[in-house]
Amino acid sequence: MPEQRTRLKRFTPVHRLWHLTLMLLFMLLSVTGVAWMFYETQWGRELAGLFGGYQGALEVHKIGGLVLLAALLLHIPYLFYCIDWKKFPGSLLNANSLVFQWEDIKGFFGHIGWVFGLNDLPKYERWGWWAKFDYWAVWWGLTIVGVTGLMLYDPVLTSDYMPGWMLNVALWVHRIEAVLAMGHIFTVHFTVEHWRPGNFPFNAGMFDGTMPLEEARHDHAAWVARLEGEGRLDAALVAPPPVPLRILYFVFGYSIILLGIYLLVFAVTNAALLTLF
Amino acid sequence: MSVGHTIISLLGALLMASPVFGQAMNTPEDLAATGFFRDQDTLPGSFRFYQQLPGGEERLWGIGPSHPKIRRSSFKLDAHEDVADFSQQVRCQKCHEPQTKDLHGLRMDISCVQCHRNQPVSGVFQYYSPLNPIRRHAYVCAKCHEGASPSFASYMVHEPNPIASETRSTFPAFYYAVWFMLILAGGVFVFFLPYTVLWWLRDLIAKFKRSAGHA
């Protein structure tokens, strides 16, 4: 008997490819960036040693950054492709859209109320307010880190376009934004997506593209209701992926998570050795 | 030429072009260097979008660094002329703690005298000092940063503390940009870190309730 179709399709293969690209480049940039930032410590030198010293780490960091910026630029035509132009501009505010809407503000405050036991969990659509926050945080994060990163890419060339002291500013802005991004991903994002009691220990949703229907009825009630109302729920259900794939997702996903935790723990324990000002 | 070969030579060219390879340590030739130029600086038609006069100050409507503090020694040929306990044997770091925090020294082991020159170390505004802003870009920075311009040399090697209140007047762009970023990052963490913990706990309670309901 084939396995029960218990899982609801949530992410398309293209969504997952974007996430995979972002994740791999983010980790590569984190490791090389942290290695450079901590280069004055023993740990930083060891990390940079993996890339053949700081020259190698910086070179990989710069190339990785360019590829990520290229991906960000490619994402723009993809967005245009995703927009439903026939119903534009109303379609920007439809239930599948990642644009912040009035519902999200209500969803946000409703969530706080729920956490404090004041009301029931709001009936969320496909994307919760936190998912939209994460999506747009990548936009502003990559813009800040990208512009300053390009400035630092070739300091001499940059100073043909602006005074050299802008590099002092750029380095600090780059640094703080990177710490914000890594700190957020390695604590909040991992906890919300993987370690909440419903998901623990690992949520393969972004890898297999689905979530359990049972969970969706609870966490995304409005979405499930809409699919049911439109008679599309059945078509959106799939069986869990085969076991070997599940093992692959788990092993791959957890190596990334552990790498993040490793960077976080060592960065925090070595932070006191850094000379910042 | 094969593709692999092309990529390797391109990577090689990239590596050779990075300043690291110009970083010869303190040899006499190195100390005598007067600066290198990039191709685009010497070929006809060279153009710089933004230019700064050597020694000129460009503060962009006052947001850049103001003129540095002038000390008594700043114009001296031997900055340590009047420093009684000075000796070549004492490490610079011992007396100049605020200047030990830049990334050239900390991360790349570049010694003070690779920029300041030695015997004697002169004040940074002494007329013939290599660090005098009129020639700093060519005599110091360009030793390692090919094509360094006066604009490039306005980078503050010994940068001030960005969050200290005096930086608000001495380097406003630095002060405000860093505080803006700190408040942004701090705001995100102050909200999300505790909130995620509460959320986690609330989920646990919900899970217990649901399994109790099923039983």
> Tell me about the biggest sheet of chain A?
3 strands, antiparallel
Q: What would the average pLDDT of chain A be, to the nearest integer?
A: 94
Helix and strand element order of chain A: EHHHHHHHHEHHEH
Strand order of the largest sheet of chain A: 2-1-3
Q: Give the low-pLDDT segments of chain A.
A: none
SSE pattern of chain B, N- to C-terminal: HHHHHHHHHH
Biggest beta-sheet profile of chain B:
none
How many discrete domains of chain A?
1
The CATH first-level class of chain A comes to Mainly Alpha
The figure for the number of domains of chain B is 2
Percent range for helical residues of chain B? 40-55%
Determine the CATH superfamily of chain A. Answer: Transmembrane di-heme cytochromes, Chain C
The proportion of strand residues of chain B reads: under 5%
CATH architecture of chain A: Up-down Bundle
Nearest-integer average pLDDT of chain B = 81
Question: Concise description?
Answer:
The complex is a heterodimer of chains A (277) and B (215). Chain A is mainly α and 277 residues long.
